[in-house]
Write a structure and sequence with these properties.
By secondary structure, the chain is an alpha/beta fold. The protein is 34% helix and 14% strand. α4 crosses α5.
């Protein structure tokens, strides 16, 4: 499939031929859901922790005699029945990450790119470069283009001036082609890929 390319001044910059096996697939919600779950599970800290009975700071001495008090029979104050006592089968530090076949992850990225292309939310940019890292200048250009919530994917390396200028813009993310992922692509309303980014993505996914 062919798509028109533009530059940051909103002028035409030729056409780009996109690979159909990457940008023209029928979207599958089940695959996208699996990949997004896999990504988010890896991000979870897994640091939740509660004290068990053996970790509470209470003495193990019996709190009062077994009989004659008129109350229930108790031993140590650190049991889970008591306030501030240990927790039974509570959460412990662990990793939430789970395995996902590489083929499924690769397919998920293709489907995410295809879904943006089919929805008309894919724009090919000539190049994402600036002479100076000026946020105000980049904000004016993006305002004229109507980009408010967009992900910009460049080639192997991102232009540092462009990345620094975009860093302070709310709703704008900039990634190299190697950092392209399903979650970030779907999260933004618009996907902007440079010509170098298209070449790098096609080389990565073919």
């Amino acid at each position: 499939m062919k798509i028109k390319a533009i530059n940051l001044d909103s002028k035409a910059a030729g056409q780009v031929d996109l690979a159909d096996e990457i940008f023209d697939l029928e979207p599958r919600a089940d695959i996208l859901h699996r990949v997004v779950r896999w990504q988010l599970a890896k991000r979870q800290a897994g640091t939740h922790k509660t004290l068990t009975r053996g970790e509470t700071s209470y003495s193990s001495k019996k709190i009062y005699r077994q009989k004659g008090t008129g109350g229930a029979r108790h031993g140590t104050r650190g049991v889970n029945l008591m306030r501030h006592g240990g927790t039974t089968k509570g959460p412990a530090p662990r990793s939430h990450a789970h395995a996902l076949p590489k083929a499924v992850r690769k397919l998920g990225l293709k489907l995410a790119l295809s879904s943006k292309a089919k929805a008309g939310e894919l724009i090919v940019l000539d190049e994402a470069k600036l002479a100076e890292p000026k946020t105000k200048a980049l904000a004016e250009k993006m305002g004229k283009l109507g980009w408010t919530k967009a992900l910009v994917i460049d080639g192997q390396e991102v232009d540092q001036n462009f990345a620094r200028a975009a860093r302070s813009l709310k709703g704008i993310d900039v990634l190299p082609s190697q950092g392209a992922n399903v979650y970030d692509i779907l999260k933004r309303d618009l996907l902007v890929v440079t010509k170098a980014g298209v070449e790098a993505l096609e080389a990565r996914l073919k």
